[in-house]
Design a protein that fits this description.
alpha+beta; five-stranded antiparallel sheet; globular
Amino acid sequence: MKKKFLLLVVFGIWSAIGAQETKILRILNRELKKEVKNQFKSPNFNGDTLRIIKPFSIDIHKNLSFAVKITSPYFTGEQIITQQVPLNSIKKLGKDINIILETETDSVTTVYTRTADGVPGEERTKGNLFFLYLSNEKQNDDLGIEIQKAFEKAGIKVDKKYWYD
């Protein structure tokens, strides 16, 4: 009987944490879709366009990842940016034009795949900044609090340090 109870408790905790990870994804994907939808309406639109290639997801190893395609009048061709970070390395949340997750050193893997003049090229970097590519919405401190709380409920303490438009 004790084993069954313990198993139910462990399963309940595991399910609750998984549900909170789903909430993180729901928030991030909702905001990324809004960003794409509203990019042309922004008074700060400069010609850079963003398209979702792969929405935010969390794999079985607890890595947060996503991919976007960017075109810009400032470079030829297009650029696909793929980022991945272990959830447990995320330490801070902030906004300085773009919403950023700050992590432990070299925890973020970013792959830039560029196509210019029909020639593909790839660059892989490691760093401590995970860019969410959310920048159009202003005066959205409540979004920062919502993201912070979702991470905390998933068992990841994230400090919200700065939030500048």
